[in-house]
Amino acid sequence: MPETIGALDLGTTSNRFIIFDHQGQVVAMDQKEHEQIFPRPGWVEHNPMEIWKNALAVMRNARQKSGAAGGDIKAIGITNQRETTIVWDRKTGDPLYNAIVWQCTRTDAICAALAGEGGQDRFRDKTGLPIATYFSGPKIKWILDNVPAARQAAKNGNAYFGTVESWLVWWLTGGPDGGSHITDVTNASRTLLMDLKTLDWDDDILDILGIPRTMLPRIVPSVDPELWGYTSASGPLGARVPVCGALGDQQAALVGQACFSPGEAKNTYGTGCFLLLNTGNSIVPSRHGLITTVAYQIGSEAPVYCLEGSIAIAGALVQWFRDNLGMISSAPEIEALAREVDDNGGAYIVPAFSGLFAPYWRSDARGAMVGLTRFVNKGHLARAVLEANAYQTLDIVEAMNKDSGVDLSHLKVDGGMVANELLMQFQADVLNVPVIRPKVTETTALGAAYAAGLAVGYWSGLDELRSNWAEDKIWQPGMDEARRQEGIAGWRKAVQRTLDWVD
């Protein structure tokens, strides 16, 4: 069988292993969901061992589906839900607490105290990030403050912290028996602990948060020719395969969309919604509620940076509509239901379930359904669910245009929701720019595969990756401007109704 590259996609709701060929086409894949744990309102957790065991299962199953021998897979790249925080015992591999998921708001009091001493932008000049419950640093502090076993292990030098890619790389390369404790620079840039200029942990911030440096992984490039280790020959791939590429999921989608030039942008519609704009080797500070982060780093080259707008609830709103309200039985049904009506009937849904992320950064906000009348039916609500994703994206694009000084000319899109053509057309209408879907929509996993493949020379460079990208469909804007502005005004009013809900 021809040589391939494997990508482990460690998402918020599931793990997948996808095997790609040289053209970036999917050869085989397998997927397994993991439990979403909600101990209290606003708290979200995962079981780290379930994530590890499911990763082994999907790797084994995808390889079997492909018919490949383990040696046919030349390298593994990893992409992951970012900011999700795991602390474990480096001697046993046992998690010292459940993973605290990026959506979790339990660190609100910690963040309020940090901001109270220096404002929400206290660390922004160094990290590119506001103080927010979203990021990993406050989550580590919460675990150390509230889990005695973790606090003791940290004191003894036996506690390791990692985001989900660190956890998996450590296990894949040996775990307690010499596994590599690393994090790639894109994930490190989401902790609130890394200096964007030096690409190193910031001792002042570590001291303020009370986090010992000994817990932290070594920061490495996204594409690392030095390799972090190998899978076991007795493992799920049946061979020693190098692990050498990692990207946070949104940066991976940027790479998978071949947005390698400054000014190119992509939006991923997943559990959340994330719009990234490549700013090249320049660190562009945001003045309009976005975050500045690392896009990727290839070996010893200078890092590439980006501006990002992060939306907490996107596809998760469709899941809520399905599971909590029971309006549909499967996510794809929402499009047909929304098509039963011509508009939202005056109803808006703002999914501030865990506060509002960019560009508002309001953890006091909570979800709201507004504009309801007797006229509104479930078709209107279905449309309001889809429109919420497009309007949230508009908020990000407007902030991005102001920060970058360049108006977005088109938007590349990916993620599970891009199959929804009603949403894609509405997105083009609201943004008033073309929306472009690629032929390969598994761009997140593809970006991770590209990172690993570049590290081992499977692909020669970025030009070869650009040549793999191909357009599947383009949506042109076609909405009357007066109607567009009316809809936007309604959305802005609806957002205001969500604020100041939590005291």
SSE arrangement:
Elements: E1 4-10, E2 14-20, E3 26-33, E4 45-46, H1 48-66, E5 73-80, E6 86-89, E7 99-100, H2 108-116, H3 124-127, H4 136-146, H5 148-156, E8 159-162, H6 164-172, E9 182-184, H7 185-188, E10 194-195, E11 200-201, H8 203-209, E12 218-220, E13 229-230, E14 242-248, H9 249-256, E15 265-269, E16 273-280, E17 291-296, E18 304-311, H10 315-323, H11 333-338, E19 348-350, E20 368-370, H12 378-404, E21 411-414, H13 421-431, E22 435-438, H14 443-455, H15 462-468, E23 471-475, H16 481-496
Parallel strand pairs: 1-5, 5-14, 9-12, 15-21, 21-22
Antiparallel strand pairs: 1-2, 2-3, 4-7, 6-8, 10-11, 13-14, 15-16, 16-18, 17-18, 19-20, 22-23
Tell me the total number of β-strands: 23
Average pLDDT taken over every residue: 92
Distance between the termini: 60 Å
Main β sheet profile: 7 strands, mixed
Biggest sheet strand line-up: 17-18-16-15-21-22-23
Report the helical percentage. 25-40%
Number of helices: 16
Over the alpha carbons, how many angstroms does the gyration radius reach? 22 Å
Structural class call reads alpha+beta
Identify the overall geometry: globular
Which percent range describes the beta-strand content? 15-25%
Low-confidence stretches: none
